[in-house]
Amino acid sequence: MDNNLYKKIENYVTGLFEKLQDKSLVFHNLKHTQNVVDRTKEIAGHYHVNEKEMLILYTAAWFHDTGFLFTEPVKHEQMSAEVMRKFMLDHTNDLELINEIEGCIMTTKAPRNPANLLQQIICDGDTYNLGTKEFKTTNKRVRQENELKNGPVDRLEFSRCTLKMLEHHEFYTTYCKDLLSVTKELNMKKLKSKIENWESKKDNDKDQVKQKDRGPESYKLSDMDKDKSGLVSKGIQTMLRLTSQNHLQLSEMADSKANILISVNAIIISVVLGVLARKLQEETYLKIPTLIFLASAVITIVLSILATRPKLSEGKFTPEDIEAKKTNLLFFGNFHKATYQEYDTAMRKMMVDTDYLYGSLVKDIYYLGVILGRKYRLIRLAYNVFMIGIVISVIAFVIAVSIYNATPPSNTIIQGSGSPL
């Protein structure tokens, strides 16, 4: 037998992987083969196998995954054995040796059933990573390899299959059982925890989709009757009451701001018309500043009035509206033209229907918010107009007076202050 056979085996298998490069082999590649060779030598060293046994293990470890380069994964063990047999027949006539190597390669096929120590060693060398911290990385590569060969893979389903494989897997040599079993169990626990988290998240996502598909009516409040302590009901009532109060306070603040703008600008208009109106015929250069001043004041008042101007709906509802829960009976604009009997009947129906009652409160708060949004937009615009108008008017007055003082008409007597006012 050739004394350099070990090196020839290594060079031949390495050459196969380099020559027949398959980018889809993310896990079952040359690096994995080299790791299996190293782990097999480690386990074999513990058992002090003889030279022939070492050659059997060494050869089987190098050739055990070469079949991935030539055929589909499910048949790779048989192809690996054929590649090995062809190579070994060119270097030895020991058929017994070749058959033992083939037996080691074929025993790596699931379900494994090693018949002797050598087959146990090669099986444990091939799955050594399952009991190490490298498992997370190698498992990810196995999934990527499956995706490249078979298309997208559901991660949850793949993890379930991996966990099932780990549960059925076992280390055969005492060396690996003592060394790797604890870490393997830890890897299983981590994987199981990850699967449970994914399943929980998936169930939550399904519930959310169902709720979304069923629409707003799925969020029913009638289940509050099952709350024996009443804490849920009290909490909701407090939340709705505080929210409604806050909206009303904000509405009062908006009305107050609008009233301030109306009052201030009304006074400004009165003063301007009362003081400057008589002078405009004589002091014509003040017309443009005055008009700007008046225009800004008028626009501010109009915007403030629009912000506070009430709007009423038709004030009627039908029995069909009550049955369909379309009318908000808590807002006077929806019932001010209805009779007391109609309103009393409708209110009694609403008060015994938890969904309708709380739905009306929610709707009331929502429309208060809509009205508030409109009010504050108009008031903000009114303040902007007022601010900009004041600034432009003052600048215009200063410019007009400056120009007038610089070039006064011959018939104008300028006062000591330099201003006609």
| Cα radius of gyration in angstroms | 44 Å
Succession of helices and strands: HHHHHHHHHHHHHH
- Name the shape in a single word: elongated
CATH architecture of the largest domain: Orthogonal Bundle
Whole-number total of structural domains = 2
Characteristic key phrases:
421 residues, mainly alpha, Hypothetical protein af1432, 2 domains, 14 helices, 69% helix, disordered C terminus
Write a structural description.
With 421 residues, this protein is mostly helical. It folds into 2 domains: 5-212, Hypothetical protein af1432; 231-406. Helix content is 69%, strand content 0%. The protein is built from 14 helices and no strands. It has helices spanning 5-19, 30-47, 51-63, 76-89, 95-106, 117-126, 135-150, 155-168, 174-214, 231-276, 287-308, 319-323, 340-351, 354-406. Mean pLDDT is 82; it is low at 411-421.
Q: How does the SSE layout of this entry go?
A:
Layout: H1 5-19, H2 30-47, H3 51-63, H4 76-89, H5 95-106, H6 117-126, H7 135-150, H8 155-168, H9 174-214, H10 231-276, H11 287-308, H12 319-323, H13 340-351, H14 354-406
Task: Give a nutshell description of this structure.
The protein is mostly helical and 421 residues long. The protein has helices at residues 5-19, 30-47, 51-63, 76-89, 95-106, 117-126, 135-150, 155-168, 174-214, 231-276, 287-308, 319-323, 340-351, 354-406.
